[in-house]
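Annotated sample (chain length 112).
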Amino acid sequence: MASIQSGDLTDGGNISGSHSNTLTVTNVSLPDAADYYVTVTDNAGSVDSATATLTVIEPIIVSQPVSVTNLAGSTVSFTVGAQGTAPVNYIWGKNGTPLSDGTTSPARPPMC
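Output written by the structure step:
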C-alpha cells in the first residue's frame, strides 16, 4: 500500500484525527469518496490496516413532504428539503406519474 505523502490529507478543513485512532470527515461530499486506511507504527515496525470505503450518496432528502387534508377549491403546497451537487433538480409525481407544469417535461419518473 502506498504511503500517504505530506499534503494528501490534512487536519483542518473537513479532516480531523489523521494522527489518531479515529479519523473524522465532516461535511462529507463527493470528493471525499475514497478508500481510507491507517498505518500503525511503534518501535518494532509498522502495519497497514485493511481499507474502509466511503461511498457518498447524492442527492439526499433531508426533509420529506408532509401529508395534508384540504377543502375542495383551496390551494395546497408540498415542500421537500434536498441536498446535492448543484444544480439540484426536482420532478414531482402524482400516483406514480411525473407531473409537468406546462413549461418543462419530466426527465424521469420519481423514485417511489
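Annotation: The chain has a mean pLDDT of 84.
Annotation: DSSP finds no helices and ten strands in the chain.
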